[in-house]
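quick q for whoever's on today - can somebody do inverse folding on this one?? i tried earlier but teh output was garbage lol. tokens:
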């Protein structure tokens, strides 16, 4: 027979602590990807809950339906916000790949993205996959787990309060995704635009030259050469983005206290 103390106290407390973990494990990049089976993720979520529950027990267990709805909603939104801050970095990489693919003539070449299982432009998948590899090489997944444990120091389980300032900060961060994508794709974008301008001048000066026949191949050669040269700078660039994402996650947590 299940003890009454477990049903009345331990199980509700574990639900409040584990809900934030479960949302993050389901939605965060890498952790929530299709490549990881559901069973290991579920076991890992239960293990994290068992570890963090004795350290960060909920200060108050809701006793009313309204209290439970507020506590559960707050925990789900906290997990979602922590996942979104990382998603903005990866979506910036994906968007940069789309921009580069359009400039290099690869916008119509689609393959199956192993993370989302949908048709995606090839350079978008390349940049996203490279961002995942950098994510793992820098041990950012360890940062995420440490940040998750620290989040219970900042906001106790069931005590989150979502404000308009929090929503505005998330929307502002989403806007920063576009500028990050342009920054990633800028070298290839500038090089291909310069090639377009050069070919335009050549076509104007000598209309008899078959500029259109060589323009796509020339842009691809120049663009891929520039991309190859700047790939060495991507780890440092993405490390900066990941650090910014973790700082943003902490600021969002503070705004919900």
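ok took a stab at it. sequence:
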């Amino acid at each position: 027979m299940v003890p009454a103390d477990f049903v009345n106290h331990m199980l509700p407390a574990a639900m409040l602590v584990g809900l934030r973990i479960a949302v993050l494990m389901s939605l965060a990049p890498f952790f929530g990807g299709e490549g990881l089976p559901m069973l290991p993720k579920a076991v890992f979520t239960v293990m994290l809950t068992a570890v963090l529950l004795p350290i960060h027990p909920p200060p108050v267990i809701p006793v009313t339906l309204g209290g439970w709805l507020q506590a559960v909603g707050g925990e789900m939104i906290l997990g979602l916000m922590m996942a979104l801050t990382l998603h903005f970095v990866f979506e910036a990489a994906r968007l940069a790949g789309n921009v580069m693919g359009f400039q290099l003539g690869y916008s119509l070449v689609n393959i199956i993205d192993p993370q989302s299982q949908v048709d995606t432009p090839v350079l978008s998948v390349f940049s996203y996959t490279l961002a995942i590899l950098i994510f793992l090489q820098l041990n950012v997944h360890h940062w995420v787990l440490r940040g998750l444990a620290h989040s219970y120091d900042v906001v106790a389980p069931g005590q989150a309060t979502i404000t308009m300032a929090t929503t505005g900060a998330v929307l502002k961060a989403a806007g920063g995704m576009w500028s990050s994508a342009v920054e990633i794709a800028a070298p290839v974008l500038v090089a291909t635009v310069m090639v377009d301008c050069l070919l335009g001048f050549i076509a104007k000066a000598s209309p008899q030259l078959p500029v259109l026949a060589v323009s796509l191949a020339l842009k691809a050669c120049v663009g891929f050469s520039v991309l190859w040269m700047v790939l060495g700078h991507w780890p440092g660039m993405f490390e900066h983005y990941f650090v910014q994402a973790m700082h943003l996650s902490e600021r969002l947590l503070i705004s919900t206290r």
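fwiw Helices lie at 4-27, 38-52, 65-104, 122-137, 140-154, 164-205, 211-230, 234-255. also The mean pLDDT is 85. so keep that in mind when u check it
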